[in-house]
Amino acid sequence: MIDKAEIKHRFRRSVESYEENASAQRKIADYLFGLLEHFLDYPPQRVLEIGCGTGLFTRRLREKVQPDALYVNDLVEEMCRKTAERCGIPADRCLVGDIEEREIPGRFDLMVSASTFQWFSRPRETFQKLAEHLLPGGLLVFSTFGPQNMIELRPFTPHGLNYLSHETLAGWLSGRFEILCFQEQCERLYFAEAADVLRHLKKTGVNASASSVCWTKSTLQQFACRYAKDIVNDRFPLTYHPMYFVCRKKA
Q1: Which among 43, 71, 83, 241 has the fewest CB atoms less than 10 Å away?
Q2: How far apart are CA 208 and CA 193, in angstroms?
Q3: In this structure, what are the phi and psi dihedrals at residue 87, rounded to the nearest 5 degrees?
Q4: How far apart are CA 10 and CA 14, in angstroms?
Q5: For the chain, percent helix, then strand, then coil, each to nearest 5?
Q6: Rounded to an integer, what distance in angstroms lies between the CA atom of residue 111 and that of residue 43?
Q7: Per residue in 157-193, is it b (16+ CB within 10 Å) or e — as a string?
Q8: Of the ranges 35-39, 185-189, 214-218, 226-230, the best mean pLDDT one
Q9: What residues pair up with 183 in beta bridges, in sequence order?
Q10: ∠ at Cα 134 (130, 136), nearest 5°?
Q11: Whole-angstrom Cα distance, residue 135 to residue 234?
Q12: For residue 201, what are the contacts with CB-CB under 8 A and spacing of at least 6?
């Protein structure tokens, strides 16, 4: 089971350090926005962004899509309200809380999300919930992470996230959505030391998936020694495996 309280705690601690260290997430948000621009064939009026974080994607939405009403959601109140304030979004359109549990106000003609859906506890049911609040013909555009994500850490985080395959997600979406586009990428970041990998995870909050690991001097040494087999040109790699979906709500 995904510990949402731990996720909230880890991301809250990374509010100030996230943007400076989230280079992979920034590239993913940029690529996702390019897909949105390509497939968006109507002027959206009511838009919901799920998992807005510090606003990497939100600012592009606000400036280029310019919906009549933009709603932002995040599990972490500090992130949600900071993004709303930065982007001039009224407080009543800042939806704090777990989108799987909280009420969604009304219906939207566009829903977007960058690097969030991997945290869902019940993705199949949540896709159904989102479909109920999306108008027929509206788009659900999102990125999540696939099975190769952070594969280097798998031996050290046996209880980490279970990253779902494209086939599984597509099967769950197909009942309510037409999948217009699916793409995936694998990108590696490289670090000078094994400890730098852990610092990167901490500063971006994504170490919530490794919360069961107790990092001591001894376990860090073991981590560095075992991680050394993955070294590329004297650098420690970390793989990101983003998957992108553009889906249209069926009539």
Answers
A1: 43
A2: 21
A3: -100, 5
A4: 7
A5: 40, 25, 35
A6: 13
A7: beebbebbebeebbebbeebbeeeeeeeeeeeeebee
A8: 35-39
A9: 244
A10: 135
A11: 51
A12: 207, 210
Over the stretch 136-162, which tens digit does the pLDDT of each residue have? 999 999 999 999 999 988 887 766 788
Give the integer Cα–Cα distance in Å for 14 and 104: 26
What is residue 95's DSSP assignment? E
C-alpha 116/C-alpha 162 separation (Å) is: 14
Q: How many CB atoms lie within 10 A of CB 96?
A: 16
91 vs 249: CA distance, rounded Å = 28
**Global confidence as pTM:** 0.92
Q: pLDDT tens digits for 79-114?
A: 999 999 999 999 999 999 999 999 999 999 999 999
**Size (the chain), residues:** 251
Q: Which residue has 């606000």 as its token pair?
A: 62
**DSSP designation for 209:** G
Residue 72: both structure tokens together: 């932002």
**What are the start-end ranges of the E strands in 30-146?**
46-50, 69-74, 94-96, 108-113, 134-145
Please tell me the distance from the alpha carbon of residue 140 to that of residue 99, in angstroms, as a whole number.
15
